[in-house]
Design brief:
Blueprint lengths: L8 E5 L2 E6 L1 H14 L6 E4 L14 H7 L28 H8 L4 H38 L5 H10 L2 H7 L5 H11 L5
Helix pairs in contact: 1-2, 3-4, 4-5, 4-7, 5-6
């Protein structure tokens, strides 16, 4: 998955992928499909998480597209801290012993916390990407294929990291569902 997938969605209807892309385009495609086919409900999934997205499809195609077209974010009001560096102040709750340890570190609590986060990201980066991909694929599998033969075994294979067994268990699934789950199961590049 590439970084742009955080803003992309995929719509499925009866095991077939209707559309993929920005939410405004996918929503219009779903609206058209529902107009052409009175039965069956489309399922829209966010590619970054594999989780379902609820859509409000009332109105014309233009109204639906406008509803899901992202406007440019307004500039954030300048606050305290170092906004030019992207520093964001948030609350952290720790035990007194943790605060004492942080206060004794060179540079203070903020510097120590940043160093700890950088180290954790560096050391666990690949493991985190694999976990996120597995979770993303499982969410999509659950939404699209929980009623299909081999779902339980495919889930076990996914969590065991057994790609061959996963592919074998999904062999009878619709091509679009199978390829989408396999796409989401790939860890994002570093």
């Amino acid at each position: 998955m590439n970084p742009s997938t955080s803003d992309t969605y995929s719509a499925f209807l009866e095991g077939r992928r209707l559309a993929a892309g920005p939410l405004s385009e996918v929503a219009v495609a779903v609206l058209r499909a529902q107009g052409a086919q009175a039965h069956g409900a489309a399922l829209v999934l966010r590619d970054a998480s594999g989780q379902a997205a609820d859509l409000d499809l009332r109105g014309s195609e233009e109204a639906v597209a406008a509803r899901y077209t992202e406007a440019a974010p307004a500039p954030a009001p300048r606050g305290r801290g170092r906004p030019k560096l992207g520093v964001v102040a948030r609350e952290v709750t720790l035990l007194p012993a943790h605060w004492d340890w942080l206060a004794a570190q060179p540079g203070g609590a903020s510097v120590a916390l940043r160093k700890l986060v950088h180290e954790a990201r560096r050391d666990g980066g690949e493991r985190d990407r694999v976990r996120q991909a597995r979770d993303r694929a499982y969410h999509a599998m659950s939404a699209l294929a929980s009623h299909l033969a081999g779902f339980e075994e495919a889930s076990r294979a996914l969590f065991a990291g057994d790609h061959g067994r996963l592919v074998a268990q999904m062999a009878a699934w619709p091509d679009d569902v199978r390829s989408y789950v396999l796409q989401l199961a790939e860890p994002a590049p570093d």
